[in-house]
Specification:
Blueprint lengths: L2 E3 L26 H16 L12 E6 L5 H12 L3 E6 L11 H11 L2 E5 L3 H10 L4 E3 L7 H15 L6 E5 L4 H12 L3 E5 L8 H14 L3 E4 L2 H5 L4 E4 L11 H8 L6 H4 L7 E4 L11 H4 L6 H20 L6 E3 L4
Parallel strand pairs: 2-3, 2-4, 4-5, 6-7, 6-9, 7-8, 9-10
Antiparallel strand pairs: 1-11
Helix pairs in contact: 1-12, 2-12, 3-4, 5-6, 5-12, 6-7
Bound molecules: phosphoric acid mono(formamide)ester and norvaline.
The site of phosphoric acid mono(formamide)ester has 8 residues, from helix 2.
Amino acid sequence: MTLRTQTFELNSPQAKPGPPRRDLISTHDLDAHEIHALFNLTAMLKERPADFRSALAGKQMVMFFEKPSLRTRLTFEAGMDSLGGSTFFVDQTGSRIDARESLHDIAHNLERWIDLIVLRTFSHATVEEMAAHADVPVINALSDLEHPCQALADLFTLQEHFGDLSRIHLAYVGDGNNVAHSLLLAGATLGSSVSIATPQGHAPLATIVEATEEIAGETGAAINIYTDPREAVAGADAVYTDVWASMGQEDEANARNAVFAPYQINSGLMQDAAPHALFMHCLPAHRGWEVTDEVIDAPNSVVFEQAENRLHIQKAILMWLLGGVGRLPVRSAHA
Ligand code: CP
Ligand code: NVA
């Protein structure tokens, strides 16, 4: 059996001295070339997990989560374990990360012990500040502004179904929240059509829309923001929704349920999408509110494929940021 070192075009900053350390704070941190390279690596990790068992041997990751998690926590932990690395989880749901000492001081402790930091926070500034101070890579595992790991897994899922992402139309209906922001940025970067429909007052942040339109100007992506869900969904290849009240907004749930009721994804709304349209949701879902059982349990619902792909995409992100790529012997396809 011939062994060769697999190479990727993805720049692997930790593999050799020179390039600056990279973080994944926003979907905006990756250009189209890098996302495609990440997706190629993701596909290999998904197809041949056994070939990557020791890719990150000896690497250690710490996770601080200010909010609950099922998918993100377990896919990061299982992913790191399957690459040979180890994880330390810090339950930060009782107080903010910086409640006891400054982020500056925490960062300069962590960088001396640990190779990579994963944060789930309320304030996006917490992730940015940790990255500004720490000398090791930082990953945003969801903040109030963005959820980049989710959007990358979602676009990878769409690529598995449709191939060329520059030809797909993704419609997102619901709250203009962190997930919507990251889907806008990732979709625009990859040249996809992204339509969003939200109630008035719940549109994506203007700064995100402006950044998305600037990217779209370069990639040819079509970005449309509506208040009418039918306009957004018309002819779409995939229809996506998320909870109407995100973590931290639980007190607003009743008021939001009334405002968002016309934005429910039900079989009537799905009929306006393309006949082959997929249903997508990052989960957790509130069945009977933002989506009906009939839609989420239908054969064209890919919600559990999205959840599975969280594992594979995050393994690729970990390898990219920790330099596992450059030192990986894999079986030659020609052996
Ligand atoms: N989709 C997602 O991030 O799920 P968790 O909140 O369970 O991590
Ligand atoms: N918008 C949701 C996503 C959960 C994965 C939240 O922030 O709670």
